[in-house]
Automatic annotation (TrEMBL):
Organism in which the protein naturally occurs: Bacillus badius
Keyword Transmembrane on entry: yes
Keywords: Membrane, Transmembrane, Transmembrane helix
Any Pfam family the entry gives: Rce1-like
Name of the protein described by the UniProt record: CAAX prenyl protease 2/Lysostaphin resistance protein A-like domain-containing protein
Lineage: Bacteria, Bacillati, Bacillota, Bacilli, Bacillales
Database matches in InterPro entries: Rce1/LyrA-like_dom (IPR003675)
Keyword Membrane: yes
Transmembrane segments: 6-25, 46-66, 72-93, 113-136, 142-159, 166-195
């Protein structure tokens, strides 16, 4: 089982490398065929290996992960963490003096409707369940150390995707993701993460000057 868990984790991390390669091919203009250009999508290059890696891990642990589901789902708590996922980026953007623009049309894409929720769920399963409780727990006895290492890994993963500017925000996000997991299990963490990512997809923060003078560029702030 341990080997399969490591394999699934490596497949997930491979998505980071594939995404970087696809981004390089696009930005350098190496791919000119329109259909191939659509397929070589950096986001899908990360999403698909993440989904596959999660399936490999879940197939390895079987039904053991059910122990981390709340025995009785509390709808108010789930709604609370969903609301937290909605408010977190909005509050941070407002705190930084940004104007928030709605981009609802993007929610109609297959990425938003299918891959975005699936990948958010997969990341929570991997980084809040598989990696800490089925891998790190074999090495460390302290739960605090397990959570710390898992959190650092999750933050560094998104730092490598989005750059140093997201470190502070991802630290805050990871804190609330763990809080939702500890209080509402993997369901609460997944709801928090999915709602957060939908907000990131549907809205874009821009400076007042940019808001008044030109259309914003494509979002680079999805997690």
């Amino acid at each position: 089982m341990f080997f399969s868990l490591i394999l699934g984790t490596l497949i997930h991390l491979l998505g980071l490398f594939i995404s970087k390669c696809f981004f390089y091919l696009r930005i350098k203009g190496i791919v000119t065929n329109k259909r191939l250009f659509f397929l070589i999508n950096p986001q899908l290059g990360y999403d698909i290996p993440t989904i596959i890696g999660t399936i490999v891990c879940l197939s390895a642990i079987g039904f053991e992960y059910l122990d981390y589901l709340p025995t009785s789902l509390s709808l108010p708590i789930i709604v609370l963490f969903g609301l937290l996922g909605f408010l977190l980026p909005i509050i941070v953007w407002k705190f930084n003096g940004k104007t928030i623009k709605f981009r609802g049309a993007l929610l109609k894409s297959i990425d938003s409707l299918v891959f975005l929720p699936m990948v958010a769920l997969c990341e929570e399963i991997l980084w809040r369940l598989i990696f800490p409780f089925f891998i790190l727990n074999q090495i460390f006895d302290s739960m605090a150390i397990v959570i710390l290492f898992s959190s650092v890994g999750f933050i560094l993963l998104h730092w490598s995707i989005r750059g140093v500017n997201v470190l502070a925000y991802m630290t805050l996000f990871t804190f609330f993701a763990w809080l939702s997991f500890l209080y509402a299990g993997i369901v609460g963490a997944a709801v928090f993460h999915i709602v957060h990512n939908l907000v990131i997809k549907a809205f874009r923060p821009v400076t007042r000057k940019t808001h008044l003078s030109s259309l914003p560029p494509a979002s680079q702030t999805e997690w």
